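Table S2 (text version). Query chain:
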Amino acid sequence: MTNYASTKSRVAAISVLASASMAAAKFAIGIAIGSLALISEALHSSIDLVATIITWLVVRVSDRPADDAHHYGHGKIESLSALGVIALLYVLAGGILVEATSRLRESAPPPSFSWMAFAILGVDIVVNSWRAWALHRTAVATKSQALAADALHFSSDVLGSFAVIAGLSLSAMGFAWGDAAAAIGVAVMISILGLRLGRSTIQTLLDRAPEGVSEKARDVISAVPGVVGIPRLRARMVGPTHFIDALVEVPRTYPIDRIDEIKRRADEALKQVYGDADLTFTAIPVARDNETVCDRVMVIARNSGLAIHHVTVHDLGCKITVSIDLEVDGNMPLIEAHDIAHQLERHIRDDFGTDVEVDTHIEPLEPDMPHGSDAVPQRTEEIRTELIKLASDGVIYHIHNVRVRDTEAGEIVNFHCYAEPSLSVIAVHEHVDKIERRLRRAFPSVKRVISHAEPPNAD
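Corresponding structure-token output:
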């Protein structure tokens, strides 16, 4: 059981003991002096006792976790119990009104004066004031409707006790109708307070959005980096838990793991505002205004489950041309590979229009983990020497960290080099690419060259 559940259960249990003792005392004195107002207040307290016992039982159920039959938990049992208690209160209020009007009509004699009645009412006011405060504070902290109903009952007890004191005082001063009028006042207060609680309870059962929660949740989720928009957000409460269902627009160029990170951040942000928030996050990929042609082509390929690279786009004025390197299984028959390429080209034309020109270069997909081993030191030194000679023009210099590995497909060469920091990326790439081509011509067994150019003294 959670800490909240333990707190609610403890407060409700204390209320049971207090309600029982106060109801018995008021009922006994009311009968002894013949006060309808005091008897009515005792009956009201008796209803509160029943309500408190129900609350004590309910809160032990409402905090159970969700299960296969109750996907949103058991929190709404508190709302149902609150409605049941409200019904009992209205039955009591109706009975009091009938008896009080009957006494007024028949001019029944006033109750006997007793200081004991005033004393027990004073104690009742103190005890119920404390209980109402404690229950209200716990209900707010735990968002418990059952405890909120209990707190409202004890608040009405306090007001009812003041009304009974006024009625007994009027009776003592010779106004025979004072006791019956006080009983009517108790019934009216019970009805008004029950109406107030009933309205909020019914709103919860009808899944009315909690006041301000939707707006606040929308602001919190919108502040998460990567969120483009929120076309729909719905919120409701089940017991103390805020259930928030959001359709969230995210850039369609984002990979799945980044979208998952957006969801995680949104969930954490909501829990900081509502510690018990339960977020249902549905991502809707959308195209942003700054999405490039290359971005769109990559999205189309990814949605088709295809691996592409080296996407080149040219604007010819009247149309655009797109060139793509498409990777497929190297053992696949050409006719199947051609069908895949043709389908990809068709998808691109569907997105850009039929006048787009698409050229696809089919090449074998590199294995995920090709087998290989480090080349012998002599071979590595031979290739390192050749790289230094090829970089003699001075634009690319200080060849270092040379590694050569033998694989089933051929040799793979990795090396680092320096270039002037002021050079553009295009200029550096052209010079490095020239070195890579010359190295492959000098060593035909080299399948691939991977270079890393960096400025001097780079971290």
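Notes on Table S2: The longest helix spans residues 3-33. Residues 436 and 445 are 13 Å apart (CA to CA).
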